[in-house]
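Task: sequence design from structure.
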């Protein structure tokens, strides 16, 4: 299982500093949507230039103009770009077309999708590299949030998938046991007193 760090900071300089601390322990460096909105795709370019050996994920959360938005992100240096699973199939197909042209990949984010397993199978058929079973920060803050719901959906989908939302040192073993291809850790790393140590511990927990 690969480890992905989600960098939900707002300044390129801070993102570069964090990436520099944790890069040796992670496989994928994700530039979060707030960072891309605050700093633009220059954040993606900066991270890719600093870490050319890492997979760089632009979390665009595209909902429309799939081919166009994916194309500009790939040109900026992204290896993976996210499209929302609630988008029209044509939007996802357009993003996949751009990915094919650039020899890159599309991740379909199922945040807000009710029947995640069924939609995961649909978007995988459209060409998604893998599917992200994702509970956003607002959802995680709700009483009764349980990561196990995402894990059950991931297991049921039977497609390559990642899990994002509540992944930490206490839950990463369950994420791996569910068959996830990628574990996405955000706050567990960037919110830690020692992000490098947090990333190292997460890496060590992956069997």
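Answer:
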């Amino acid at each position: 299982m690969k480890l992905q760090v989600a960098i939900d900071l707002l300044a390129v300089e801070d993102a570069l500093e964090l990436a520099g601390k944790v890069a040796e322990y992670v496989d994928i460096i994700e530039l979060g949507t707030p960072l891309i909105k605050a700093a633009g795709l220059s954040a993606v370019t900066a991270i890719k230039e600093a870490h050319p050996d890492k997979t760089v994920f632009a979390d665009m959360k595209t909902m429309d103009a799939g081919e166009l938005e994916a194309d500009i992100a790939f040109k900026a240096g992204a290896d993976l770009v996210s499209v929302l699973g609630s988008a029209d199939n044509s939007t996802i197909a357009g993003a996949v077309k751009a990915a094919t042209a650039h020899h890159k990949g599309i991740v379909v984010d199922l945040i807000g999708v009710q029947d995640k397993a069924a939609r995961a199978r649909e978007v995988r058929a459209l060409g998604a590299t893998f599917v992200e079973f994702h509970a956003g920060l607002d959802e995680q803050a709700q009483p009764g949030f349980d990561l196990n719901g995402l894990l059950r959906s991931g297991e049921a989908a039977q497609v390559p998938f990642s899990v994002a939302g509540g992944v930490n040192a206490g839950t990463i073993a369950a994420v791996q046991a569910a068959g996830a291809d990628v574990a996405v850790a955000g706050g567990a790393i960037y919110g830690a007193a020692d992000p490098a140590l947090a990333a190292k511990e997460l890496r060590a927990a992956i069997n």
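The first helix runs from residue 12 to 22.
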